[in-house]
From TrEMBL:
<feature type="transmembrane region" description="Helical">
    <location>
        <begin position="7"/>
        <end position="24"/>
    </location>
</feature>
<feature type="transmembrane region" description="Helical">
    <location>
        <begin position="288"/>
        <end position="307"/>
    </location>
</feature>
<dbReference type="GO" id="GO:0055085">
    <property type="term" value="P:transmembrane transport"/>
</dbReference>
<feature type="transmembrane region" description="Helical">
    <location>
        <begin position="327"/>
        <end position="353"/>
    </location>
</feature>
<feature type="transmembrane region" description="Helical">
    <location>
        <begin position="62"/>
        <end position="84"/>
    </location>
</feature>
<feature type="transmembrane region" description="Helical">
    <location>
        <begin position="262"/>
        <end position="281"/>
    </location>
</feature>
<keyword id="KW-1133">Transmembrane helix</keyword>
<feature type="transmembrane region" description="Helical">
    <location>
        <begin position="168"/>
        <end position="187"/>
    </location>
</feature>
<feature type="transmembrane region" description="Helical">
    <location>
        <begin position="232"/>
        <end position="256"/>
    </location>
</feature>
<keyword id="KW-0812">Transmembrane</keyword>
<comment type="similarity">
    <text>Belongs to the autoinducer-2 exporter (AI-2E) (TC 2.A.86) family.</text>
</comment>
<dbReference type="GO" id="GO:0016020">
    <property type="term" value="C:membrane"/>
</dbReference>
<protein>
    <submittedName>
        <fullName>AI-2E family transporter</fullName>
    </submittedName>
</protein>
<keyword id="KW-0472">Membrane</keyword>
<dbReference type="Pfam" id="PF01594">
    <property type="entry name" value="AI-2E_transport"/>
</dbReference>
<dbReference type="InterPro" id="IPR002549">
    <property type="entry name" value="AI-2E-like"/>
</dbReference>
<feature type="transmembrane region" description="Helical">
    <location>
        <begin position="30"/>
        <end position="50"/>
    </location>
</feature>
Amino acid sequence: MVTTRVSTIFFSVGLTIMIGWLFYVGKDIILPIVTAVILLQILYAASAAVARLPGLGRTPIWLRATLALIGFLMVLFAMTRMLVASLQNLVPSLPLYQRNLENLFASWFPVSATATEPKIRAAELMASPSEIFDRGSEAVGKAVSEFANSFFTEIDIASIAQTALSSITSFGGFVFITILYASFMLSEITGFPEKVRRAFGNDMASTDTLNMFTRINHDIGSYLATKTLINIMLGVVCWIILVIMGVEYAVLWAIIIGLLNYIPYIGSIVGVAFPALFAVAQFGTLTTPLIATGLLTAAQMIIGNVVEPRMLSKSVNLSPMVVLISLAIWASLWGIPGAILAVPFTTILMIVLARRETTRPIAALLSADGNV
């Protein structure tokens, strides 16, 4: 019995590595399909909310999911327009922000003309420890100053923004393909249970498979739908804070914060870093950026530690350590999209492993409390 379980675990790990390699090699083909499946699960969960609207409670699920898809496209279109408009307005102002940063670093680490100063002998330095400290501090300040000057001289922030703008344009093609896949999947959602029954033949096997898909749709759909609502709330709160503090392009930074909050643990930190660094470049001082960063961090902590646990509850029963490991793995495979989809992917893997007795111990190890 023990030998069987060990061999099962061994082959499961080997199969997981092979699938990961295929995912890495076929990223351009697999990622839109997988994203479409995840989007379909979000629409499946959103269709339950649409059913609560007056007159739509008895409509078929495909119609409710289609209405949810239309609403999603409208929100995506509006958000994309705001992003593109903000970036187009941001690019002409980048030289000014770059000069503000240069002036700020120049005030911190002024370059002193030390070439004309007399050289101090080693014996004199050894006789005065304070002189060693002063000379060391001066050398460090000079090195940092030279690095900052060379950094801001060589870096071209405008070209970086132009690259980001073109990346959004290319991202539009990816979104179009994903929505196309999701639309075709949506058209087949009503006949899917009958396909499963005909494919497996055995009523017990087909019922077990349909139950597995039902749980995946429920867990992943409810998690992503609730997470999306939380991120919208966070984005609105951060937008209000940025507007009050006078930070420009508050809509852009609020959208970035909301999107990056899909990434567990790390996304919230990175999301706050973008507007904080921009505020330093805008104001050329540290007072307002530090206050804005503190308020944004407080909003992240309140929503992340109070609101999110209450709303998400136990929709995904994953161990925090497993979440971190899966985040590292999927981010290395697919970058930012992999980091965003790390939790849904790992949850699906746990649900699939829990359906078989031989792989149930692995699913229990992936879970937070062992109940799978």
